[in-house]
Write a structure and sequence with these properties.
Blueprint (H helix, E strand, L loop, with lengths): L9 E6 L8 H12 L3 E6 L19 E3 L5 H10 L3 H14 L3 H23 L4 E4 L4 H13 L3 E5 L2 H4 L5 H7 L3 E3 L2 H11 L1 H4 L2 E3 L6 H4 L13 E6 L8 H13 L4 E6 L5 H10 L6 E4 L4 H10 L2 E4 L14 H8 L4 E4 L4 H4 L7 E3 L4 H12 L2 H18 L2 H16 L8
Parallel strand pairs: 1-2, 1-4, 2-3, 4-5, 5-6, 6-7, 8-9, 8-11, 9-10, 11-12, 12-13
Length: 419
């Protein structure tokens, strides 16, 4: 697929952090757009997240922009902007919309001057459309820049930015040219928030994965050793539910089963998980491994006997929708176990291409793991169906076609064409 040389739309994409190791699934969308002919410029509110990032983000080297409070240009642009009534109107509208949540209020006050500076850069770089990578603070910044420049904006929405950070979301939907989300579950939630207006402008485009990267070697075969290999992967945060996996491992150990469990990731719950592992006497069985490049991660999928993703919904509303680790494991030929959350059930059908258990239930997790340990025919049947599922609906290259068409239609319908 190539783009007509009549024009090359210039797209500003706003992130909170870029690059961020946990957001590789988001960046894939913009890599696809860049390769399709869109000129992508990245605007980040907070810079990058740590020193680790996937090499795919290097495609945007030299095109990542961040404002600093110490920048004289940021100060000058803000002085000019606050002389305009539109700036005050926007500021008071955002304050009113987040007044009930002090944390969100403070964060919006922080990002406001950055968004004003972004507006200057966006005009300077002749951007034709602004898109926010998340519906939360990046979209607030995109909305401000759009109002100040007259350039239309849109946004993507994924999980916590729909279910946890809902302030001003209805207003953002109303003002956006279009909205992209990764699951039908999310689309229904956005329509509930935005009303009839949201239904006509919200599109479902699943991220998917590079399935070839995770495809098992032709001659690979699952070993039949007494040590069962359990794998989990993701940010070490409460909504991932890894503490329930550790609880399940304790039950398996108490019943005399031999296994090794690797949890790949980093995050705020790391110390808590290590403490739980040690207190449960699992230091020889359960290991926490730092995040790694996807090429190395694929080898872990191929070595594992099962991938367990024990997601939960927190009291604050944080949740997974369709975690990419499940797609990657299914493509790798690794059987998967997860929980009965609405988004996950769009991917996994219990007993057909994976197993689902109630969230927050270590006993049910242990039982599901044990059922796969004891039934190789069941494992093989689930694996074959899982590979068929992701091949049909979660191939990133195939799914990118629809995403590109949505942007082509809304960003520059008069000038851009795909051939």
């Amino acid at each position: 697929m190539t783009q007509s040389k009549i024009s090359r739309p210039r797209l500003a994409v706003v992130f909170s952090r870029f690059p961020a190791w946990r957001e590789n699934f988001v960046v894939g969308d913009f890599i696809a757009l860049d390769r399709a002919g869109f000129r992508i410029e990245i605007f980040t509110l907070l810079g990058q997240q740590g020193s680790f990032h996937q090499p795919e983000t290097e495609i945007f080297q030299g095109r990542v922009h961040r404002a600093s409070f110490l920048s004289p240009l940021l100060l000058w642009e803000n002085i000019k902007a606050w002389c305009r009534p539109v700036t005050w109107r926007l500021f008071f509208q955002i304050l009113a919309g987040t007044f009930a949540c002090p944390i969100e209020l403070l964060k919006n006050c922080f990002l406001f001057p950055h968004a004003i500076y972004f507006a200057r850069l966006i005009k300077q770089k002749e951007i034709t459309h602004i898109h926010a990578a998340w519906a939360s603070y990046p979209t607030t910044a995109a909305w401000i820049a759009s109002e100040l420049t007259g350039i239309p904006f849109s946004f993507s929405s994924h999980a916590h930015d729909i279910y946890k950070v809902r302030s001003l979301l209805r207003e953002k939907i109303e003002r956006a040219r279009f909205v992209v989300t990764c699951a039908e579950t999310n689309r229904r939630a956005l329509i509930d928030i935005g009303g009839a207006n949201a239904e006509s402008k919200t599109y479902v485009h699943r991220h998917g994965s590079d399935l070839e990267r995770f495809r098992p070697p032709v001659l690979s075969h699952r070993k039949s050793e007494p040590i069962w290999q359990i794998l989990a992967c993701g940010v070490l945060d409460d909504y991932k539910g890894f503490e329930y996996l550790v609880g399940a491992c304790a039950l398996l150990k108490n019943e005399g089963h031999k296994f090794e469990c690797r949890i790949i990731g980093q995050g705020p719950r790391r110390k808590h998980l290590i403490q739980q592992i040690n207190q449960s006497g699992l230091s020889q069985q359960v290991h926490i491994i730092p995040p790694m490049l996807q090429g190395k991660l694929a080898a872990h999928y191929h070595e594992a006997d099962v991938l367990v993703h024990p997601s939960v919904v927190t009291k604050q509303g944080r949740r997974d929708v369709i975690p990419n680790v499940l797609v990657e494991a299914m493509a790798s030929g690794t059987p998967v176990i997860s929980t009965r959350l609405s988004g996950i059930q769009e991917l996994i059908q219990h007993g057909k291409n994976g197993l689902l258990v109630p969230s927050g239930d270590p006993q049910a997790l242990a039982g599901a793991i044990l059922s796969l340990m004891q039934d190789s025919l069941k494992r093989d049947r689930l694996v074959k169906a899982a590979q068929d599922t992701v091949a049909k609906a979660y191939d990133r290259r195939r799914n990118a076609v629809g995403l590109i068409e949505t942007f082509v239609t809304h960003v520059s319908p008069q000038q851009t064409a795909l051939s």
